[in-house]
Amino acid sequence: MTTPLPVLRAPLQPSAAADDRPFSIALQYARDVKNVLQAQVALRWKRVYLPSLFGHYSVNSACNLRCSYCYVGQPEIFPEGFAQRGLPLDRARRVLRNLRHECVALRIQGGEPLIYRHIAELVRHARRELRFWNVSLITNGLALARSPDRWRGLLDDLHLLTISLDRTRLREYPAQMEELTAFLPALARMARERRCTLTLNYTAPWDELAEPEGIAAAIQPHLRWFSNVYVMPVRQAGKTPLPLLKNSVRLNRRYSWTPASFPDYPEVEHVQWYRDHCDPKLKIKVDPDGGVVYPCENHSYSAGSLEHGSIRES
Ligand code: SF4
Question: Which of 117, 170, 258, 286 lies 20 to 30 angstroms, CA to CA, from 84?
Fold first, then answer.
């Protein structure tokens, strides 16, 4: 894989005028169809412009936990650490609107997105006005467990909610995780009533990946509350040992609803294989300042501002 790149942050421009251009959903759906078709072509012929169909927006870096594996604590990925509280609502909406020109699916993440003060309004805007085909959010779930009534509207506006839960966190935050796991049956009920799909994200450090059955045993008690489980290896760009990545694929094939989507890793490290199987442009990431993170969060630099420009200009 590639060598980690230096973190370069594009200087943010002064606020542009309020985004009051009319948004036509009919026009956007036509653009969506064109982008999806064009992406099919561009993935085969590299000279064709590849639209970024999947947008991941880190609305903040602030969090109510400090997990030992967390990327936010790594300055080469998040230079400001946990200090970013996120953009004011009008600027965050502008980021989403610029993302929407190419993205059909939106993933909201953090930090911890449920402590971003405008999260409910932003998700509502994404779902009801910008009409992303799919709006999802990943959270450590503590805010949900502590005041469930506050979040019922949010669940109405989400297609999918992912709870992040794993052995590292169970060990490092036993009291908080007890609160969360006790709340899972009620959360599953709440999500079902609101037609929001509930999934689990398990972040696996290398020592756990060396013994995948330990991960399986940790997932098992909670499996019934979730439609899908994703085991995500803690990655260091280009350094995660191949046997561990292969173990994560085996687990994901066991638990995922799309087992065929996980490709076999090569027998030995093979840079061309990664280039052929991963196009960083298809899934675009946005940082808490509205900057486009490129090529991906593990060796990231900011390639332009999505608050003031399109993905194509970045
Ligand atoms: S909950 Fe997520 S963002 Fe917060 S410290 Fe843990 S890994 Fe990092």
Answer: 170
Q: Which amino acid is at 168?
A: T
HSE-CB of 72 using CA atoms within 13 angstroms = 22
Q: What is the pTM of this model?
A: 0.88
pLDDT in tens, 168-220: 999 999 999 999 999 999 999 999 999 999 999 999 999 999 999 999 999 99
Residue from 58, 59, 68, 70 whose mutation best tests the ligand 1 pocket (most atoms within 8 A of CB): 70
Give CA 215 to chain center in angstroms. 21
Q: Beginning with the edge strand found earlier in the chain, give each strand of the sheet holding 197-204 in spatial order.
A: 228-233, 197-204, 160-164, 134-139, 105-109, 54-58, 283-286, 291-294, 301-305
Q: Is the CB of 135 within 6 Å of ligand 1? A: no
Mutate to test the pocket of ligand 1, among 71, 82, 115, 140 (most ligand atoms within 8 A of CB): 140
Q: From the CA of 220, how far away is ligand 1's center (Å)?
A: 22
Which element (helix H / strand E) includes 242?
helix 242-255
Residue type, 1: M
| Beta strand pairing call for 283-286 and 291-294 | antiparallel
